[in-house]
Design a protein that fits this description.
Elements (H helix, E strand, L loop, with lengths): L11 H6 L1 H7 L4 H10 L3 E6 L18 H15 L3 E4 L10 H16 L5 E3 L11 H8 L6 E5 L2 E5 L25 H13 L3 E5 L15 H11 L2 E6 L6 E5 L2 E5 L13 E7 L5 E7 L4 E3 L4
This protein binds zinc ion (ZN).
């Protein structure tokens, strides 16, 4: 990391817990040991949210055009830190007057985002499917599904889609109120079965919030939390949508809301993060610019 602000060295404990590696380390000098520790296996991913890219003048505190420059800074950091994958937590674009113009916003911002890393995950935000249909957004970014899961290095990751009205109709073409975010019955059933089927610790990615009951919350988030909690496998939920740093711990799960990239003018108002997970489930969130840092030890 070029930004030397890790409160602890990621990977150190994992490395020291491994008897074979400790034996090897005994024959290394201090600088070799440090290098070996840095290379010790731990999972790393990059996170950005609420980019709202659009080629239009600022609206209030949202500087749509500046997102490209801010994303370039995040990209440079990610090139150095080499995450295993990157996640975009929703609202990648902002509204345009037509479908074609909005697709062009998406092409422009995704050209830069997709250059960062070949393993990418896109969470749908309300602004992603305001004018566009879900299949149009997903088709453009090359992702098959709006909700799904994947495994990486001993951990299980779940991507949720809360862009459904309370009657179950998917968001598209301005057919919804942004405050009416829901996870429909079929997705809840899928989530329950998906968590049942894994023996790994789980991280969840969502756009709309699962931890609050105001306008930024998923309306049926109590039902979602119940499924997450009863699995006893979920370590943390990373979410966006309300554009501010926030953290709630509910039922032993960290609900961490990430700062929005679009907010404020100038590079100093940027926000993005690198997250390291040790094999024991300890999480280190290294936040840049306006994004807060967190360190959560896995409780036994
Ligand atoms: Zn947003």
């Amino acid at each position: 990391m070029s930004k030397d602000k890790h409160p602890t060295q990621p990977g150190r404990r994992a490395f020291l817990k491994n008897g074979a590696l400790v034996l090897t380390a005994a024959s290394l000098n201090p600088s070799q040991l440090l290098h070996a520790e840095e290379n010790a296996k731990r999972l790393r991913f990059g996170l950005v949210t609420d980019l709202h890219y659009a080629d239009k003048p600022p609206g209030g505190s949202r500087h749509y055009r500046e997102t490209l420059h801010k994303l370039e800074e995040a990209s440079n950091q990610f090139q150095q830190d080499q995450p295993d994958f990157i996640v975009e937590l929703g609202d990648l674009i902002d509204a345009a007057s037509s479908v074609d113009v909005e697709l062009n916003y998406l092409k422009t911002v995704n050209r830069e985002f997709s250059a960062i890393c070949k393993n990418r995950h896109y969470v749908l935000g309300n602004h992603c499917v305001d004018t566009l249909k879900k299949e149009e957004f997903l088709g453009e970014v090359g992702q098959e599904k709006s909700y799904y899961s994947f495994d990486r290095d001993g951990f299980h990751f779940v991507v949720l889609d809360s862009c459904f009205r309370s009657d179950g109709v998917p968001y598209a073409r301005k057919n919804f109120q942004w405050t009416d975010a829901n996870i429909p019955a079929a997705e809840l059933e899928w989530l329950k079965a998906d968590l049942n089927a894994t023996d790994k610790q789980v991280i969840v990615f969502a756009h709309q919030r699962l931890d609050v009951n105001n306008n930024h919350g998923v309306k049926n988030n109590a039902a979602v939390r119940k499924i997450l909690e009863s699995s006893s496998k979920v370590l943390a939920v990373f979410q966006g949508h309300s554009h501010q740093n926030d953290l709630n711990e509910i039922g032993g799960i960290h609900y961490c809301t990430m700062v929005a990239m679009v907010e404020g003018s100038g590079t100093e108002s940027n926000g993005y993060s690198i997250i390291d997970i040790e094999p024991n489930g300890t999480i280190h969130l290294n936040g840049f610019r306006n994004q807060k840092d967190y360190n959560w030890a896995r409780q036994a």
